[in-house]
Design brief:
Blueprint: H1 2-39, H2 46-49, H3 55-68, E1 74-75, H4 87-97, H5 112-126, E2 136-139, H6 142-153, E3 159-164, H7 169-176, E4 180-185, H8 201-206, E5 207-212, H9 225-238, E6 241-245, H10 267-270, E7 271-276, H11 277-280, E8 289-293, H12 295-308, H13 314-325, H14 329-351, E9 364-368, H15 375-386, E10 388-389, E11 391-392, E12 403-407, H16 412-423
Parallel strand pairs: 1-10, 3-4, 3-5, 5-6, 6-7
Antiparallel strand pairs: 2-8, 7-8, 9-12, 11-12
Helix pairs in contact: 4-13, 5-13, 6-7, 6-12, 14-16
Domain Aminotransferase class I/classII large: 72-422
Keywords: Aminotransferase, Transferase
InterPro entries: Aminotransferase_I/II_large (IPR004839), LL-DAP_aminotransferase (IPR050881), PyrdxlP-dep_Trfase (IPR015424), PyrdxlP-dep_Trfase_major (IPR015421), PyrdxlP-dep_Trfase_small (IPR015422)
Length: 432
C-alpha cells in the first residue's frame, strides 16, 4: 500500500513539476515575443527608401528645440500663411456642414457646382474659358496634384524637367514614378526663368513632363505672357506636358497681377495649371485645390484619384465655391498686407547693409548671401546667434546655394526686429 501511495505521490509531483516548467516556458515565450517585437525592424519598400530626404524636417526640428529652450525665435523659414480664413468662407462651410447631404460619400470626382465655380473664376480673373465637365479636377491640396501627376504621365526612366531652385515636392512625385530629373537652372541674370535654349536637344527630346511655378517659390520671380508663349512652343516642339504650379497666383506686387499659364495661346494643348486655395484665401489647412487645362491630363488625374479616394468633404467644396464666387475684397487686402510687409522688411535690410532685391510676387523674399559662407551655415548662424529662422537655399536645389528664403508671414514689427537682430551680427557692414 505504501509502495502504491509513493508511486502516486511521485507521479503527482512529476505532474506538478511538468506543469510548472510548462508555465515558465509560456512566460518565457511571451517575454521573447515582446522582445522580438521591440527589436524586429520591418523593412520599407525599395520605393519608399528611394524617396528624397525632407531637407526642411531638420530645420523645423532645430527651430522647435530653440523654442523649447525658451528662445524667442522669429520663424521666417516656413511658408505657412499666418492670417485666418475670411469669415464669409468659414460661415459657408459651417452652414454646409449641417447639411445631411454632405454626410455621405462625396461624388468620386467632386461636386459639379465647384467645377462650375472654378470655370467662372478663371473666366473672370484671366479671361480663360474652361469646360467644367472635362477640364477641371478637384484635388486634396495642390501638393497632392503635383505629386500625382508624374504617376499619371511618365514611366520609369523618363525625363522630367524641374526648376532649380524649386519646390522640393516636385522631386517626390518624380521619385515615386521612378522617373529621372533634369534640372533647369534659374538665375538672377535671366529673371529666375528657365533658359530653354540652354537645354540640350537630347534632353528636351527625352523629356515627357516639365514643372514651372510663377510667382515662384522660392525666388519671388514672376513670369510674362511672352515667356508662357515660349513655353508652349517649346513643349509642343518636344512633346512635353507642362504643369504650371500657380500656388501664388493671386499675390503680385506693384500693381502687377500674376499671369496664368493658360492665358497663352495653345496652353491647354500642352498642359495644366494647379491652383490652391491655401494662399489666396488662407485655407492651407482645408486641403482644397484644383487642376485646370488639358482634357487628357485632367482625365488621367481623375482616373488615378478614383483609385485612391473619393472626393473632399462636401461642406469644404461648398465653402471653396463661396470663396471663388464671393467678394474678393479679402484677396485685395491680403495682397496689400504682404506688399506692406515686403516693403518694410526690404527697407530694414537695406538699413543694415544687406542689399536684397524686392520680390515681384509670392510671400517670399530670396536673399543673396555674403561670399564665403554656405546657405546652411548662414541659416544655422542666424538661428543660433540672432534667433531668426530662415530657409537655406540649398534645400531648393543646387542652384539655390548662395541664397536664403524668408517668409513674409509675420507682422511688420517682427520683420523689422528680425532685420535688426541680423544687423547686430555685423555681417553686412561692408558691401559684398
Amino acid at each position: 500500500m505504501r509502495i502504491v501511495m509513493s508511486f502516486h505521490l511521485e507521479k503527482i509531483l512529476l505532474y506538478i513539476l511538468l506543469f510548472t516548467i510548462y508555465d515558465v516556458a509560456l512566460e518565457f515565450q511571451e517575454f521573447f515575443k515582446k522582445v522580438w517585437a521591440m527589436t524586429m525592424e520591418i523593412p520599407f519598400s525599395e520605393l519608399l527608401e528611394q524617396l528624397p530626404k525632407q531637407f526642411f524636417a531638420s530645420l523645423v526640428a532645430k527651430v522647435g528645440e530653440k523654442i523649447k529652450a525658451g528662445c524667442d525665435v522669429i520663424n521666417l523659414g516656413q511658408g505657412n500663411p499666418d492670417q485666418p480664413t475670411p469669415k464669409h468662407i468659414v460661415e459657408a462651410m459651417q452652414r454646409a456642414a449641417a447639411n445631411p447631404k454632405y454626410h455621405k460619400y462625396s461624388p468620386f470626382q467632386g461636386y459639379f457646382f465647384l467645377k462650375e465655380a472654378i470655370a467662372a473664376f478663371y473666366a473672370r480673373e484671366y479671361g480663360v474659358n474652361i469646360d467644367p465637365d472635362r477640364e477641371v479636377a478637384i484635388l486634396f491640396g495642390g501638393k497632392a496634384g503635383l505629386v500625382e501627376l508624374p504617376l499619371c504621365l511618365v514611366n520609369p526612366g523618363d525625363v522630367v524637367l524641374v526648376p532649380d531652385p524649386g519646390y522640393p515636392d516636385y522631386w517626390s512625385g518624380i521619385a515615386l514614378a521612378r522617373a529621372r530629373m533634369e534640372m533647369m537652372p534659374l538665375s538672377s541674370e535671366n529673371g529666375f526663368l528657365p533658359d530653354y535654349e540652354a537645354i540640350p536637344e537630347s534632353v528636351a527630346d527625352r523629356a515627357k513632363l516639365m514643372f514651372l511655378n510663377y510667382p515662384n517659390n522660392p525666388t519671388g520671380a514672376t513670369a510674362t505672357k511672352e515667356f508662357f508663349a515660349e513655353t508652349v512652343a517649346f513643349a509642343a516642339k518636344h512633346g512635353i506636358a507642362v504643369v504650371h504650379d500657380f500656388a501664388y497666383g493671386a499675390i503680385g506686387f506693384d500693381g502687377r497681377k500674376p499671369v496664368s499659364f493658360l492665358e497663352a495661346d495653345g496652353a491647354k494643348d500642352v498642359g495644366v495649371e494647379i491652383y490652391t486655395f491655401s494662399k489666396t484665401y488662407n485655407m492651407a489647412g482645408w486641403r482644397v485645390a484644383f487642376a485646370v487645362g488639358n482634357e487628357r491630363i485632367i482625365r488621367a488625374l481623375e482616373l488615378l484619384q478614383d483609385h485612391l479616394y473619393v472626393s473632399l468633404f462636401g461642406a469644404i467644396q461648398e465653402a471653396a465655391a463661396a470663396a471663388l464666387l464671393g467678394p474678393q475684397d479679402c484677396v485685395t487686402e491680403l495682397v496689400a498686407l504682404y506688399e506692406a510687409r515686403r516693403n518694410a522688411f526690404i527697407a530694414a535690410l537695406c538699413e543694415i547693409g544687406w542689399e536684397a532685391p524686392a520680390p515681384y510676387g509670392s510671400f517670399f523674399a530670396w536673399l543673396p548671401l555674403p561670399k564665403g559662407i554656405s546657405s546652411a551655415e548662414f541659416a544655422d548662424m542666424l538661428l543660433e546667434r540672432a534667433h531668426v529662422a530662415v530657409a537655406p537655399g540649398i534645400g531648393f536645389g543646387e542652384h539655390g546655394e548662395g541664397y536664403v528664403r524668408v517668409g513674409l508671414l509675420t507682422d511688420e514689427a517682427r520683420l523689422r526686429e528680425a532685420a535688426e537682430r541680423i544687423g547686430r551680427l555685423g555681417l553686412f557692414e561692408k558691401n559684398f
